[in-house]
Amino acid sequence: MERKRAMNELRMALTIFAVIAVFVVFRLPFMILYLVDPSMSKVDPFLHTLLIYIGSCSNWINPLIYSLSNNAILNTLKKMFSAKKIFVVTA
Q1: How far apart are CA 57 and CA 59, in angstroms?
Q2: Total tally of structural domains belonging to the chain
């Protein structure tokens, strides 16, 4: 029982670490650029837009991290993608 609790705590810690790491990696370039030039007047508009889009990637990666750390979702995905039967839809 104690081992299971320790594994759950480790899994939770890894999930939190992954969320923070993704946030830092994807948001840091924009934050550094903003610290260098707060008005963004010297920044190429394409680069500015690109960094905003890259920064927003962490918003759609977080649900993936949380869902992949959930055993019930992982087991369902394994069942879905390891199905041996092929279903054919006929009209």
Answers
A1: 5
A2: 1
